Amino acid sequence: MGSISDFVDSSPLPPFRVLIIGGSYGGLSAALNLCDLCDGLPPRCGPKAKEGSEPVERPRFTIETTIVDERDGFFHLIGSPLALADEQYAPKAWVKYADIPALQTRSNIKVLHGSIQSVDPEQKKAKFIARGMGVAATELTYDYLVVASGLRRVWPVVPQSSRRKQYLFEVGDHIRAATVGRHGVVVVGGGAVGIEMAAELKLVHPHLKVTLVHSRDKLLSSEPLPDDVKDRSLELLREAGVDVLLSHRVDRTDETVDEYGQSCQRMHFTNGHNLVADHVIMAISQSVPSTSFLPGAVLDDEGYVRIEANLSFPAPYSDDHFAIGDLVRWSGIKRCGGAMHMGYLAAHNIHQRMLYRLGGAEQSRETPVDLTLDEIPPMIGLAVGKKAVAYWPEAGTTSGEDVMKLFFGEDLGFTICWNHLGLGRSCEQA
Ligand SMILES: Cc1cc2nc3c(=O)[nH]c(=O)nc-3n(C[C@H](O)[C@H](O)[C@H](O)COP(=O)(O)OP(=O)(O)OC[C@H]3O[C@@H](n4cnc5c(N)ncnc54)[C@H](O)[C@@H]3O)c2cc1C
User: Fold this and answer.
1) Is 293 exposed, middle or buried (0-12, 13-18, 19+ CB in 10 A)?
2) Closest residue (by CA) to atom 42 of ligand 1?
3) Domains of the chain in sequence order
4) Which of 26, 104, 130, 312 has the highest CB neighbour number within 10 Å of its CB?
5) Ligand 1 pocket, CB under 6 A
6) Which residue, 14, 16, 21, is CA-closest to 126?
7) In the predicted model, is pLDDT for residue 12 greater than 50?
């Protein structure tokens, strides 16, 4: 009986075509972990081998991976609150795909800049519209699909530009508008995004008056987290110099002119209070899954993909369709660590299917051996200026500058994510 490698060498199958929709934490993790596995290497986001253990032998075979993204680069979304406060940091947070060594040194990974309009899982085809090419659609065919298109978030929660150059203008305009006046900035919404946006603005512009208003009596009120996380976040935010107004629901905001003849905004709250601001940042929008291109049968009523524990679509598409990251219906708070982990799991499970198709019967493999996603308890790491607060069930609540360093390093997590995904590694170094 031949080995899988023998079988592969004589296999009439063409290279497997893998289409990945979304080139962020989840999508890049799926693409690169799968490349590792098909190159016969340990997957970069998988568990580290125990010292002294025998290396796992994996057959090598070729695949063709196509990543589609509406942006022309990887945007470090976690760094968005800092990018929207600091013109020095903003260029670092967006790296064009053409400048990512891990992608550019592989001839079998192609990145297309544009949008997926529809997916036909029966035919294994997707309609793609290239950025700047009007409405003319191209058809992309695939053997395996990974959907990693995340959530659609509105401005100014995230920049809306699709090109890095345009993004730098967008961010620069925002920072100037937020920092030029006398009355300061009001951030509306005391969820994780509002807290981080307010704290980063204050950190980078210490003389700016920054106020966070929240309609409920606790920050992070819609998150399933213990009260001490919420209370600690409030303490850190106030310590960082942000004015926090709880139980303040915005009634209306009027354009007005101050005593110096400068235009500004007067915010009225339902409790009768009002205050004047130069700039109001709304950080309260409900984000929606970017899944409108998928058949309704695989979505729940909010548009999240109804995955199985192995991250596959529900039957009848479970053999070759996977969804990962923020857009899946699963337990836990949406986090980039979760998206990268799911990317690794999906890569493993797709690799198993490829092996099975290549030589499964000869290897007495009855079925692919899948890895599955555990239930995810509520956990969070939240940057609040120079410090961070973190919570996960085993450790409880922790906070401080050491927690900031551990969770976010020196650059709001950019280097941690870049290294975890091995984006700076060329193919030869893999
Ligand atoms: C301001 C902010 C701060 C955050 N802070 C933290 C934090 O501190 N820690 C943490 O763990 N998590 C944090 N998160 C959450 C974290 O960013 C997400 O969990 C993570 O981005 C999910 O990754 P993803 O790959 O699933 O999706 P995303 O990062 O949302 O990426 C989806 C990609 O798909 C592309 N796309 C969408 N639709 C299409 C389409 N139709 N065709 C082609 N491409 C498409 C998008 O352009 C995007 O690049 C934060 C989120 C925000 C908004």
Assistant:
1) middle
2) 115
3) 4-156+287-376 (3.50.50.60), 175-284 (3.50.50.60)
4) 26
5) 21-27, 68-71, 77-78, 80-81, 115-116, 148-151, 153, 157-158, 193, 196, 290, 293, 325-326, 334-337, 339, 381
6) 21
7) no
Cβ atoms of 24 and 146 closer than 8 Å: no
Please report, as a single letter, which amino acid is at residue 244: V
Give the list of residues 6+ apart from residue 401 with CB closer than 8 angstroms, or none: 386, 387
Residues 6+ apart with CB under 8 A from 26: 148, 150, 324, 325, 326, 339, 340, 342, 343
Distance 68 CA to ligand 1 centre (A): 14
The residues, any chain, with a CB within 8 Å of residue 39's CB and separated by 6 or more, are 60, 430
What spacing in Å lies between the alpha carbon of 297 and ligand 1's midpoint?
Answer: 24
| Nearest alpha carbon to residue 279 among 373, 153, 181, 350 | 181
Which amino acid type is present at position 222?
Answer: S
Secondary structure element (H or E) that encloses residue 227, with its range: helix 227-239
Query: What are the φ/ψ torsions at residue 124 (nearest 5 degrees)?
Result: 55, 55
| Ligand 1: residue whose CA is nearest its atom 38 | 149
Confidence category of residue 361, pLDDT binned at 50, 70, 90:
very low
**Ligand 1 midpoint to CA 267 (Å):** 31
Nearest-CA residue for atom 26 of ligand 1? 325
Burial degree of 176 (CB within 10 A; 0-12, 13-18, 19+)? exposed
Task: Tell me which of 77, 154, 166 to substitute to probe ligand 1's pocket, judged by most ligand atoms within 8 Å of the beta carbon.
Answer: 77
Inform me whether the pLDDT recorded for 334 exceeds 50: yes
Nearest ligand 1 atom to the CA of 293 is: 41
